[in-house]
## 1
Amino acid sequence: MTLHLERDLLLLKRRLLEASTLAEQAIRRATAALANRDNALARSVIAGDAEIDSREIEVEEEAIRVLAIHQPVATDLRFIAACLKINNDLERIGDLAAKIARRVLDLYSDTTKDPVLPQDLLELADLVINLLRRALDAFARGDVELARKVRMDDDRIDRIHREIFFRMREQMKQCPTLVEPANSMLSVSSSLERIADHVTNIAEDVIYMIGGEIVRHPGHANERGHVD
Amino acid sequence: MTLHLERDLLLLKRRLLEASTLAEQAIRRATAALANRDNALARSVIAGDAEIDSREIEVEEEAIRVLAIHQPVATDLRFIAACLKINNDLERIGDLAAKIARRVLDLYSDTTKDPVLPQDLLELADLVINLLRRALDAFARGDVELARKVRMDDDRIDRIHREIFFRMREQMKQCPTLVEPANSMLSVSSSLERIADHVTNIAEDVIYMIGGEIVRHPGHANERGHVD
């Protein structure tokens, strides 16, 4: 590998990690807004999504530029392909954080109402943030073992989301005034579960990047009882 | 461009179009299952998702192979980058079709119940299928004007989804027995809206592929009243 290529790959990695910091921050803030009924913070997450979108385009342009200039092969090519995919997942994570922030505004904008936040929703958010943190560490350090562990944790997140889904649905049946807040909570839970799916994609891209092994699409979801 | 590269790019395009046929078929079938209360058809959509997943991996491997062998630049490089992204969107469209099929099973597996299907949900499905058809035509023919038109239609789909969302929520408030079916219909509507987002991505990739112009992330959604 030429020094020139090595420098450009490091730069690409740094840019992607910067973009990942913004995405991670967006989920942290959206979750804090939810926990603390902080509408101003929720609005800042929504406003900040434009910056995450711009970063996505910059990283993609940079990756294509490195491909065009250096025409890398083997490991370097896989690294760039993985960066392109991770970049895409980070952008969607940013979108989902903004979506959670919009639900926070739905929940708390009417100050005459006082929706009760399910405790496991915040627990789910913590798990998802922790999972993203570990997937990004696995990418930064090229740690394939850590990436494999991240993949395993997605099941636990699915289970909690499913429990929240069924409980919220029961609440809606029991009390019409709970339909709106329960719908918003459900939407938050569903966004967290989708973020975890993107995090799993990132972990799979790290495994591919390092070993060339494609581990996507393991075992398909059951036909029923799956609330995704 | 060498004949060898030209042949490989054509092959890649053909493979991607084959994968797209499967994804399109999956949505058509999931929608038909919904309209005709056809649980067997819904199950075949769920079972067929594994094939769509395999195709995604094949197309990606092929694209990386072409990159490594020919080290293309400029238009050819953009074409391959666009194929990689469109491939990813097709795989997610397949996942969402399977998700719709799971909701069909939720809706119709209890034959003592007879949920009323909102007419505009089928209308929404038709619009989304038509949009995907046109985006794929734009890709196959390299028709940038058609791709631009596809991007414009996404707003209409968002509007219909929003109408369905608010109507379903009202139904849930009025009648507890409607909570379960209305939740399933809402999930279908939401999946259709997400498919339309992926279709918009495909149209944007076609525009980029042909002109090198990045048109993503136009105007951000409003803070509230957005049900995505």
Note: The radius of gyration of chain A is 19 Å.
## 2
Amino acid sequence: MLSMSMPVPPALDPPRRILMGPGPSDTHPRVLAALGAPTVGHLDPYFLQVMDDSQKMLREVFRTKNELTLAVSGTGSSGMEACVVNLIEPGDRMVVCVNGVFGGRMADVAERAGAVVTKIERPFGEIIPADEVAAVVKKVSPKVFGIIHAETSTGAWQPLPEISKIVHDAGALMLVDTVTSLGGIPLEVDEWELDAVYSGTQKCLSCPPGLSPVTFSPRALAAMDARKTKVASWYLDMSMVRNYWGQQRAYHHTAPINMNYALREALRLVLEEGLENRHARHKKNHLALKAGIEAMGLKYAVPASHCLPMLNAIQIPDGVNDAAVRSQLLNEFGIEIGGGLGSMKGKVWRIGLMGETSSQRNVLVCLAALEKCLLDQGQKPAAGAGVAGAIAAYR
Amino acid sequence: MLSMSMPVPPALDPPRRILMGPGPSDTHPRVLAALGAPTVGHLDPYFLQVMDDSQKMLREVFRTKNELTLAVSGTGSSGMEACVVNLIEPGDRMVVCVNGVFGGRMADVAERAGAVVTKIERPFGEIIPADEVAAVVKKVSPKVFGIIHAETSTGAWQPLPEISKIVHDAGALMLVDTVTSLGGIPLEVDEWELDAVYSGTQKCLSCPPGLSPVTFSPRALAAMDARKTKVASWYLDMSMVRNYWGQQRAYHHTAPINMNYALREALRLVLEEGLENRHARHKKNHLALKAGIEAMGLKYAVPASHCLPMLNAIQIPDGVNDAAVRSQLLNEFGIEIGGGLGSMKGKVWRIGLMGETSSQRNVLVCLAALEKCLLDQGQKPAAGAGVAGAIAAYR
């Protein structure tokens, strides 16, 4: 008999959190139900219909007519890698904008793919100025230009249309990270002429993590078709993946069936609400949280001019124990918020108001709970000021 | 208002299949329930416990003490890529055994990673002889030797212990695909000294597709630590992934939370049954199916000496329409079986008896349904012979 050295762990029983960190966000019960629906095969006619439905809905949400629009079988970072490795061949020049952790990650991914990378760097929390982009792309003449629409590490909201024009005028492809922006703020893939765009499921789409929606413009496809070398990653090679998502239905890898069920349901919820309503909801709840936070005497880490609604980076007051507050929120209230990343580690909290999480109820309970934690930390926020500030913003 | 060009697709309503193809296999209701449990954050203490539980259970199932044992955040093919790209640097020599589609895929992955690949090729359905391995590794002196334990495209069961010894004597690392074997036939990672082993969740573990269990020996770790270049894939770079699964808990990418819930539950079911019992069940149902298939006058595509129990490749009789039979099984009976891949396309059916799917009930209904389909195709199987043959094998 084979020896067993461990007892079987107890049944799964996850705590019920309010996910107000930088993602994952809360999932709608309909999405969880879809996730747990019976598995069918990856070439089952029913699953092919699920894929078609999701492609159509993703095009709506990305605001594009791009044929090559699908969900990569990995989390958002795999979508980043898919966009980079399909466009870059060893020796190609790429400009990457780095004003947070995810820009830094993109530069790393690009270098591993063999790109000669030029970085445009800005301190965490700032955005990338268009005139600097113009100067650098003129000098470098890159094949690909990469930028983050919504920097999850800082909460900075990067304007894209002007930069996209500059990048195209320089003959480069525009590669954009929309992991945190998709479904939460306006994104116009076709109108802004974005060429390779990836996102994640677990932010403003409110689907559990595990897939990465991507879309590629005809210009990006032409660049892929003109490659002289194979894509370094077999798993992420769009020349094969597209033949499975396209009408050929050529087997590539076994798709994550149930995750695709969940994405389809999450997209249905997005379309039922409507993109404009969804953006407005994200904005409204952000403004209320911001009013409450500032009424408590706390400050945002990012100027209002480019502050994302779904990711609120808030300066931790002097004398407050970062980890203690986050633990108290989690253990006493079941509220998850995020800590800082990179140069913002220990300096900010990141409060997410993404997708299902973005609600009046969550804004108010978060402010109330935070008030108690700050009192327990010896701070003296004016009693009830946070909640009152938010309520005033809502009325 | 943003224009919408499509109606919202109808609610999800997948058909209830019996998944008797090459994977995914049927999932236990407990696994589906786990999949749909409330999402928590990827750094939530509860989720870290889920990861620890799964690592421990994966070590049991892989039969290893390897510290670096975890679930890659992608399907089985991403596990293949993870094993290859973490061990191979450009210019490294790798020998890959190709006797089916998945060996061919591994060679492709290795070439993309920059390996100088030498193939040991055998016709589909055959296994790789140890003496040929000895000759080739002596000549090539590779860094890595790659082989498929259970060729899902052919149903061939590759013996490993003797080859592993030969490979180690030549100073190479032993990289093994166990996508279809793990949980269905004996696999002894430590005893056989396998160095890099990957699997999938959707075969004999009976969890939906989306994760790839992997394990690396200390010898493989030493090779990774000795690398001079960064791993080409950021997403699959084990030097970072291991710091998230290890006690540092360093953020790398957002783990697919709910898929990891499901894997944990699937592993609990495996341990509750016990590996030996599970292997015996797979064998028993295979032998019954085989008795039934042969009683109907059909033939296996692979000799009994190396025929996998969970993947039964059966020659399609002359005059029978492959696609028509598979469609009839699906549409009339809700039974999915697989067609042939590569050189076996149109020549074989692949009947999977994997994990939850491997049951007496499924064997009997499959044989009965197949008899009807063959009759409808103008064949003349002896009435009831398939079912009677299987019942005799069970008694």
Note: Chain B touches chain A through 87 residues (CB under 8 Å).
